[in-house]
Write a structure and sequence with these properties.
This protein is mostly helical. Helices cover 75% and strands 0% of the residues.
Length: 213
């Protein structure tokens, strides 16, 4: 399979389509995270940390998610990473949508519905990630931290991501965040799901599309 070019491209190129794709992907991402929180079967790594923060601060889940993203952005400074429009939108949209979706999606107690929410949330998260990343309007805070650390340390993106997410899960669990089967399922499924959808969602220059056909 050919390598997919995900380098950021200026918003002036196909702005309507790419902005819509970005915001749609981020909104779906927020909904998917809310679904995982209502399943109570284990959260994705950064969700574990956000839940742990809520238990010690009284903040809403969405607010905690947003503040964690801002803190991560501060780590970009020594890594010399540059945020894009997508980076800022990532922080704001996901934080708002998570809380809105949690207000609509009720807690589930029947195991069957909890599993449905879990599996649906993980699948939707993969689609959402590929959608907003494919808009090529700048990485999210966590994605930028991952690529920045990989560039500065010379380590592989896979290793850096794994170490980051293990660290985040451990910190979140220590704060009282929920770790469970869902955490493991997410870790195993999110990479393949995102990779499978990216070819369908990645924006390409006109000449790139012509070359593909």
């Amino acid at each position: 399979m050919a390598q997919i070019d995900l380098r950021p491209v200026r918003i002036s190129r196909d702005p309507a389509r790419r902005s819509t794709q970005l915001l749609s992907g981020l909104a779906l991402y927020g909904v998917s995270v809310a679904m995982l929180t209502r399943a109570h079967l284990g959260l994705e790594p950064w969700g574990v940390l956000a839940e742990g923060v809520t238990k010690h601060t009284g903040l809403t889940f969405g607010t905690a998610t947003g503040l964690i993203s801002v803190a991560v952005l501060l780590l970009w400074i020594p890594l010399r990473q540059r945020p894009g429009i997508g980076t800022v939108a990532n922080v704001v949209v996901i934080a708002v949508v998570v809380d809105l979706a949690r207000a609509v999606i009720p807690d589930q107690h029947a195991l069957t519905w909890r599993i449905v929410l879990l599996v649906g949330g993980v699948a939707l998260n993969g689609v959402a990630t590929a959608t907003y990343v494919g808009a090529r309007l700048g990485p999210g805070a966590r994605d930028g931290l991952m690529t920045g650390l990989a560039a500065r340390t010379g380590r592989s993106v896979r290793l850096v991501r794994t170490c980051l997410e293990i660290s985040v899960v451990v910190a979140g669990f220590a704060l009282g965040g929920t770790v469970g089967f869902g955490t493991v399922l997410y870790a195993l499924a999110i990479g393949p799901l995102t990779q499978a959808v990216l070819p369908l969602t990645t924006w390409r220059e006109k000449r790139e599309r012509q070359q593909r056909h």
